[in-house]
Every structure is written in structure tokens, then in C-alpha cells.
Amino acid sequence: MRIAISLFLSVFVASWSGIASAQTRATPASNPIPIQANGNAISSVPVAPDSQHLALMSLLECLELYHPAQDLKGAAKLSGSTTMMLLGKAWADRFRNFHAKVEFTRGPDGTDAGIKALAEDPSLIVGASRPITEQEIASLKAGKCKEPMSIIVALDPLALYVHESNPLTSVTPEQLESILRAPGQKGAHVAKWGELGVTGALTDQPIRIHARSEIAGTTAFIKQFLLRGENVAKEVGSHTSSQAVCEAIAKDTAGVGIAGFGDAVAGVRTVSLNLRGTVVPANEQSFLSGQYPLVRPLVLVFDKAQMKVDGGLRESMLRYILSRDGQMEAIRAGFFPLDPSFIHKELDEICGTRMR
């Protein structure tokens, strides 16, 4: 797998598995706020709520605008993650403003389905709402995908959502895992709200999990990286999108589920993370300051060998997606952009080192 994703995962796994002393804060791959050292501890510079958007705009201003290098024509088929579907459509639509002769079509939906399809059809460009595993890379190489490559294109902070009437205010990482973990695994499993300290009408009520399907990238991310391979608890409802997960929780007072920051709807609220006594809310401020650790990368997977025969289409698309224009679309879709230095490394790996 690519070094960029390995580095991201090393940060995520270290911050989540060790999560978290009050003195050691997790730093997301995209972090526009400076980090300073205090002795042996690393602490994040806090971001005032009214400066959140200024921080994002400052980050975007450091990114290069997209400048078409050539007149393109051809076709591309996008597939994969339903979490990224609207973002992919926005990218395709805006890209055609620069390259009107390029046509886009849609392949199989779902991260797992898209990766399997890529093994048989290397012309696909697949979105994945989780990192690609080494086993999947090997499977792609064993198929028709000669040179599989994956790049991070945006970040998606995740949150635990409950019904707005639920009095639960925060959970530790261990409690979050115990909610999501199936019974009978190595780790603990909680089945009722009272086991999390919830009092009142919900005390003896079963915890009702609303989730994405088993083939969704969100579920795979929970299993692979939050639960470290253990099985996910059986849900009471399987939903086609993260927003649908939140909509279901809004109608279920005992409901709970994982979804992105941008998926909230009326009737739900997020639950903060209690990192060894430090309560970190699930919001933009915590993410931008580097305090919030529950973040997954959004990834594009493709056959790099196709770049030799596509007339510059893939390189131009990736340059657009990683430009200020493309990263602005990620923000509009409810996700977060990448750090400029990280983007430069991505582009160097895709296209080779160039003068900037």
C-alpha cells in the first residue's frame, strides 16, 4: 500500500489505540493549526470557534488553483463509495467546466463492490471511504489491475450520534468500542444504556445500533481500525447512507450510530470523546486543533498503468481534485481538505517531482 496511507494509519492507530492521555493529542493528517512542543508532551494550539472558518480559508489559500495544462477528451467511469458519491459528482461536474469534452459515467456502488470491479475493469476510478488493505492490493494485482494505486483526497471526521433526548454526554474510547463490538469477542460488549451510566427511562433499554451495510466502507473502517478486526455488533437497521443513519436515530430514542460530521440532521446530537478525563467534542474546532482523533481518509483507487494511455485524463483529474478548486468541493460536501504539504507529496508520487 502507498506510504501516504500507511503514515496516516500509523497516526490514527497510535492516537486511537493509545488514546489518549490528556497530554498527548491526536494530530490529523490535515492540520492547518501549528503544533508546539511542551517538554515531552505535544499540545495543540486551541482554535476559537469564530476562527474555524478562517482556519479553513487560510488552508485553502495555500493550495494551488487548478490550471488546465491541455485540451482533454475521453471518458471516465467513477465507482465505489456511496459516502463519496455526491462529492464525486461535484468533482466531475466542475472538472467538465474546464474540460467539456470529458464524459463521466457511474460504475458499481459501494467501496467493496468498486474494488472488486476494478480488478476486472482497470479503467474504473474507485472511491473508498476507508483505506485499502494489503490483501485488496494483492487481489487487484492478481486481476487485471496492473499497477493499483490509492491516494487520499479528503478527510472525514466521524462521530457517535444519539437521539437528542439521550442524556449520554461523552464516552471513552473503550466505551465506544464496547457499543460497536459484537458480543463474544475478546473485548467487552455493552447491551443496555444503563451500562454506560445512563439513568432515567433509557436505563434498562437495549442499545439499538443503526449502521451502514456490511459492504460499506464505514462498516469496514469500524471493524478494521476501531475494533482491530473484531466483529461489529448486529444493527437494528442497515441504511444506504450515513445521513440515513442519522435520520433513523432521530426517530429512535434508544438509537445510536456512527456517521460523519456533515451527516447530522434535526433530532440527533453528537457524543463527545472522553480521552482520559479530557472531554473532546465532535466538532470542527476539535478537528482543526488536532485534538479529535476519530478521522478516516477518503481515498481514490485506480490503475496507474492507465495513465500511460489515457491522454493525461487521470493526471489532470487528480491535479484538479487536489487543487484549491477540488478541495473546496470537499468542504462543500461536508468533508475536510488536506494539508498543502501532504498534497505536494501526493502529486509528486502521482506525477513525479516538479518545480512549483
Give structural notes.
- The chain is α/β, with parallel strands linked by helices and 356 residues long.
- It has a domain at 74-155 and 298-351: Periplasmic binding protein-like II (D-Maltodextrin-Binding Protein, domain 2, 3-Layer(aba) Sandwich).
- Helix content is 33%, strand content 22%.
- It has helices spanning 3-17, 52-61, 85-98, 111-120, 134-142, 173-180, 217-226, 242-249, 284-288, 313-321, 324-332, 340-351; strands at residues 35-38, 41-44, 74-80, 102-109, 124-128, 148-163, 170-171, 208-212, 237-239, 255-260, 268-275, 278-280, 295-303.
- Strands 3, 4, 5, 6, 7, 8, 9, 10, 11, 12 and 13 form an 11-stranded mixed β-sheet that branches.
CATH homologous group name of the domain at 74-155 and 298-351: Periplasmic binding protein-like II
Rg (CA only): 20 Å
Order of helices and strands: HEEHEHEHEHEEHEHEHEEEHEHHH
> What integer is the average pLDDT?
85
Percent strand: 15-25%
